[in-house]
């Protein structure tokens, strides 16, 4: 690794102690929406890449931290959504010695992102290019898939352990650092808002599952982390309180969507309007920065309600099938 000066770091980089550095990946050029993290260990590891358009920002931040093209040992993503993993192909090319680690249910989409990109274009339409850019494929030989658990060697007896944590996505893992006790939570705990200190749900379609989400939060409790590192956004020391609040918010949102669905089945607009009115009372308003892109773009009411509705529809269908007598 090259020499670097902590005093001369760019404003995209924040030291967090324990040789861990937060990198603001500058989604669509905006601050404070998506974060990646460098563990500057004997075998340097990047957790989360941000989007494809973020890749130059991440590369320059790593270089400022003394990580040259041949130095990065591992790139790990908590899941394959484009705000977390869209830059994998770009950064794999920029750092050709890095192994890419992902849950097995997401591995094929890193090797061939065409299906993932088609799905994202359907959701995001004209905003796709601004927000995410184009995810490039990664050589399959460089991808290591993990299952229920896995381990990344950080060197010097330090490791990063992965733990399968679905609920937000079927291909989601949490990652805990054996040296610092930091738990990289991806989106499994939701979205943390430093400006207000609140945590809000992230329940997008098609994979949201309340039971799986709550089980993942219980798993995170059991891992007894010292700190939570959110991709949206930043470090949180109040671990048990934050995990408990995340579970509470999930239940509140699901109950509200159930209520709205009971009033007008299948009426998404009604559910969104009702939930928005109710949750506006729960949260402090965010500062008005004048930005066109905010965290509400990625984890807003409409997307969350759509994910919960999709899950409730799926539950109803499964229960209907269970009641169907055999032919």
TrEMBL record:
The keyword Metal-binding does not apply. SMART domains: Lactamase_B. Pfam families: Lactamase_B. Residues 33-232 form the Metallo-beta-lactamase domain. The keyword Hydrolase applies. This is Glyoxylase-like metal-dependent hydrolase (Beta-lactamase superfamily II). GO terms for molecular function: hydrolase activity. Keywords: Hydrolase. It comes from Allonocardiopsis opalescens.
